[in-house]
Specification:
The complex is a heterodimer.
Chain A: E1 5-13, E2 16-17, H1 32-42, E3 47-51, H2 56-72, E4 77-80, H3 86-95, E5 99-102, H4 104-108, H5 111-120, E6 125-133, E7 144-148, E8 153-158, H6 159-169, E9 173-178, H7 190-197, E10 204-207, H8 213-221, E11 227-230, H9 232-235, H10 241-250
Chain B: E1 2-5, H1 13-21, E2 26-29, H2 32-37, E3 40-43, H3 49-59, H4 61-71, E4 75-78, H5 80-84, E5 88-89, E6 94-95, E7 102-106, E8 112-113, E9 116-117, E10 122-127, E11 129-130, E12 145-150, E13 152-156, E14 162-168, E15 170-178, E16 181-184, H6 192-203
Parallel strand pairs in B: 1-2, 1-3, 3-4, 4-16, 5-7
Antiparallel strand pairs in B: 5-6, 7-13, 8-9, 10-12, 11-14, 14-15, 15-16
Classes of the chains: A alpha/beta, B alpha/beta.
């Protein structure tokens, strides 16, 4: 049976990690390539790199980083942040990433999803969704609205409708980030995750709010997520990926335990 | 020298990188002479069967691959490459290479497990129960898992071509082969150590299933 995936997310600014990852045994602090190698060794099922600067300069640094990461980890990884054209996607894929994550760029230009899927296959295109809870209304019937720019700008787009539309445009997967839960370490937003996951046929990665292994267990069972994104839980050494997987395995969540 | 067939079907660089990691001499090529002189040939691919067959036919590589398979050269199919070596794919109703007898089917829409509809594509890590002691799968732990991403799977005409199966709502063939041909639905180049071990086994294989 298919295992649920645990996916560390690495935010990169100008080629350096932003969430000061401090590995215990004197590995370079802030080097994303070392971090990738370490998480690969620890049993991560996939990795996500997010370029939070996403300027023209940083894109070249990112391509170089993707190339270096691809040489040291033999598991899939995706790259997001500032990918606006099929040509941007091509560069990242040729450098060695399996998947491309598009977020606000796809809201501004939904054809980016279909053109990317046509050029590289749906399995390459991950739709990143930043979602905020609002009062349900005729324009936002699900009560969840798509937001961009870190939650500062409301788009007027219903999150559930957008998820379905992106699926029909050819997105192969959804990475669903709750802006309300993000950074709280109080748990994923279970209702939102379950709502989206049960209404699309493509896999859903839950993101935002993980603080302990119980949170992951919750979102992978009640939340019906296919994978869980984690960041600070592992970046700050509160847990290792093996700790998390061992706990989830003991709770009956199917995990890849041999690597 | 290991040759990776280049036919514009997705990301071939990951297979190349995995072989480099294993310190294998390898080349990504569509050149006839290079393919013929290679000791082993890998036929990877992601994307759709229709597009892939279109490119293979347009470049004449379809006939080259059939020839290499008949000549007894060790051939490894990966993902879409695995599907295309069969007679026919339901994806874009595509006639394929016919190296192994069988068809490629789509997962049924009503694929269920424990009362819940399963996601399609089958994406992520899953295990393979290997049926035989095939040299390419020798030494692989029963606990090993491999990275899959696909909506179609091969269904050989005869069980004798099934080397391993995977469970996802149904039990489907995830490793197939005969004689010098072996093919996997998963991505060994993206499956960590167990995947690398399969690639390494293949690189040392002489192309007969009893060694």
């Amino acid at each position: 049976m298919l295992s649920k995936r645990i996916i560390p997310c690495l935010d990169v600014r100008a080629g350096q990690l932003t969430k000061g990852i401090k590995f215990k045994d004197n590995i370079d602090i802030g080097d994303p390539v070392e971090a990738a190698r370490r998480y690969y060794e620890e049993g991560a099922d996939e990795l996500v790199f997010y370029d939070i600067t996403a300027s023209a300069d940083s894109r070249d640094i990112m391509i170089d980083l993707v190339r270096q990461v691809a040489e040291v980890i033999m598991i899939p990884f995706s790259v997001g942040g500032g990918i606006r054209t099929v040509e941007d996607m091509r560069r990242v894929i040729l450098a060695g990433a399996e998947k491309i994550s598009v977020n606000s760029e796809a809201i501004k230009n939904p054809l980016l999803i279909s053109e990317g899927a046509k050029a590289f296959g749906s399995q390459c295109i991950v739709l990143g969704m930043d979602v905020k809870k609002v009062d349900a209304s005729s324009s936002i019937p699900s009560g969840y609205e798509m937001v961009i720019h870190g939650g500062r700008i409301f788009t007027g787009i219903d999150a559930l409708a957008w998820a379905r539309r992106a699926e029909s445009l050819g997105a192969g997967e959804i990475c669903l980030n709750s802006i309300d839960a993000d950074g709280t370490r109080e748990g994923y937003e279970i209702y939102l995750t379950s709502l989206i996951s049960s209404n699309v046929r493509i896999p859903v990665i839950a993101s935002g709010g993980a603080g302990n292994p119980e949170h992951l267990c919750d979102v992978l069972t009640r939340g019906r997520a296919d994978a869980a994104l984690i960041a600070s839980m592992v970046h700050y050494h509160s847990y290792t990926i093996r700790d998390i997987k061992t706990y989830l395995d003991s709770q009956g969540v199917k995990m890849r335990m041999f690597w | 020298m290991i040759a990776i067939i280049d036919y514009q079907a997705g990301n071939l660089t990951s297979v190349f990188r995995a072989l480099k990691w294993l310190k294998q001499e390898c080349v990504v090529t569509k050149d006839y002479e290079t393919l013929c002189s290679a000791s082993h040939v890998i036929f990877p691919g992601v994307g759709a069967a229709g597009d892939a067959m279109f490119h293979l036919k347009r470049t004449g590589l379809d006939r080259v691959i059939i020839q290499l398979a008949r000549e007894g050269k060790p051939l490894l199919g990966i993902c879409l490459g695995t599907q295309i070596i069969f007679d026919f794919s339901e994806e874009n109703t595509t006639p394929c290479l016919g190296i192994l007898p069988g068809t490629v089917k789509r997962f049924p829409e009503d694929l269920m497990s424990s009362g819940a509809l399963l996601k399609i594509p089958h994406m992520g890590w899953n295990s393979v129960s290997f049926r035989t002691n095939h040299p390419v799968f020798r030494g692989i732990s029963d606990h090993a898992e491999f990275y899959f991403v696909h909506s179609f799977f091969p269904r050989p005409d005869s069980e004798e071509y099934v080397l391993g199966t995977t469970s996802y709502g149904i039990e489907f063939p995830s490793a197939v082969g005969a004689a010098n041909v072996v093919a996997v639905q998963f991505h060994p180049e993206k499956s960590g150590r167990p995947g690398l071990a399969i690639l390494e086994n293949f690189c040392g294989w002489r192309g007969t299933d009893a060694e």
